[in-house]
Amino acid sequence: MGVIDVTNVSFAYEKDLVLENISLTVEKEDFLAIIGPNGGGKSTFLKLMLGILKPNKGTVRVLGKEPSKNLSHIGYVPQNTNVNTDFPIKVIEVVTMGHVGSKRPLFGYGQDEIACAMGALAQVGMEAYADYKIGSLSGGQRQRVMIARALCAHPSILILDEPTASIDVAGQRDIYELLKELSKSVTIIVVSHDISVILEYANKAAHINKTLSYHDISNKEKTFPSHARGEHFCEVELLQMLGSKSSCDTSEPGKKWRTKP
Fold first, then answer.
1. Distance from the first to the final alpha carbon of the chain
2. Which of 1, 143, 211, 238 would be a feasible disulfide site paired with 233, CB 3.0-4.6 Å?
């Protein structure tokens, strides 16, 4: 049994089949990249793992239980973490909100919760910014704070949806370096379009476009299998074969691959 087990899952919105017969096992301390074209089902797959949606067929299990029964083990960083820069809230206050099940107001948190939040900030290298206003930080710094908020509940699994959107390339690499380090103790699952960057750090990848193709990419130098050569490559296979000399348009399913000159 893995940390997350997805078995023969299909899902449809009314008559629109989005995911078809998907199976996947995520192991402890994996760094899994979920990639694929827009509209391919990545967001739906994420919602199934979070228990927001239930499959029409098949099962999803988190640590052996339905996702909704094990949410305390999942930390989630959504794609849209835009902050009103005029709102006078401190970094430490944002992170303290990550305490699962706490119903106390911000000013009512005790020293244990504050210490936990400071520990989470230390994990992401942001403890020196605890008293800064969240709106004064850069996009990359704010994303680190949101990761710290998710870590505050001590999750076994951290799921992030497009964590480097609107962050420059240097900032993206900083975030992925952080996630790679965190993956030594927490299972990391990232939905991302930053294929060329994330595949440098992930050890597993799942390409979703209605169906799912799973790849172990822990050995970056692995020779592309000769028996699989042909016209039908997903992003992972193509990048393994061509390295950084590849380019692809994944905005539409079935787009042709092309190689940079």
1. 45
2. 238
The most confident of the ranges 8-12, 111-115, 176-180, 232-236 is 8-12
Instruction: Give 21-59 pLDDT, tens digit per residue.
Output: 999 999 998 999 998 888 899 999 999 999 999 999 999
Rounded Cα distance, 4 and 22, in Å: 13
The stretch 88-103 carries a mean pLDDT of 79
Angle between helices 111-123 and 139-151 (to 10 degrees): 130
Q: What is the DSSP string of 169-233?
A: HHHHHHHHHHHHHHTTTSEEEEE-S-HHHHTTT-SEEEEEESEEEEEE-S-TTPPPPGGG-SS--
14 contact partners, CB below 8 Å, separation of at least 6: none
Q: Write out pLDDT tens, residues 220-248.
A: 655 334 443 333 445 555 555 544 333 34
Tell me how far apart the alpha carbons of residues 246 and 196 are, in angstroms, rounded to a whole number: 9
Q: Return the SS3 of 251.
A: coil
pTM surpassing 0.90? no
d(CA 156, CA 151): 9
Q: What domains are defined for the chain?
A: 4-82+157-259 (3.40.50.300)
Contact, 112 vs 118, CB < 8 A? no
The pairing of strands 204-209 and 31-35 is parallel
Buried b (16+ CB within 10 A) or exposed e, 85-102: eeeeebbbbbbbebbeeb
